[in-house]
């Protein structure tokens, strides 16, 4: 197995152990253009997951404070948003696994 393919696979699988740190390190350390491309793609997918979690957390904080005075409609909308963000994050994790397995099969 070539080390560049292994590093590329680990960039995608790092969603489980070091989502932002590992792809950044690989991007700056690797010499191969293909490895840098995979590190960049995996970093963008990890950032997308982080952004959805941040938006969900911030909206929960604001809605939790406002739900007491506004009512339950806004709270139910926020809960539906959480399910949507959870679904997006699940799709991101599955995409990372699929990309990592594809790279493993090409070796």
Automatic annotation (TrEMBL):
Keywords carried by this UniProt record: Membrane, Transmembrane, Transmembrane helix
One Pfam family hit: MamF_MmsF
Protein localization: Membrane
Keyword set includes Transmembrane: yes
Listed transmembrane segments: 12-30, 42-68, 74-98
Main location: membrane
InterPro entries: MamF_MmsF
Membrane topology: Multi-pass membrane protein
Name of the protein described by the UniProt record: DUF4870 domain-containing protein
Organism the protein comes from: Metabacillus lacus
């Amino acid at each position: 197995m070539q080390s560049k393919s292994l590093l590329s696979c680990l960039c995608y699988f790092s969603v489980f152990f070091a989502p932002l740190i590992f792809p950044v390190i690989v991007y700056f350390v690797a010499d191969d253009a293909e490895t840098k491309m995979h590190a960049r793609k995996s970093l963008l997918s990890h950032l997308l997951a982080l952004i959805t979690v941040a938006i969900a957390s911030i909206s929960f904080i604001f809605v939790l404070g406002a739900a007491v005075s506004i009512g339950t409609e806004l709270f139910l909308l926020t809960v539906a948003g959480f399910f949507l963000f959870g679904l997006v994050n699940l799709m991101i994790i599955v995409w990372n696994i699929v990309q990592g397995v594809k790279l493993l099969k090409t070796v």
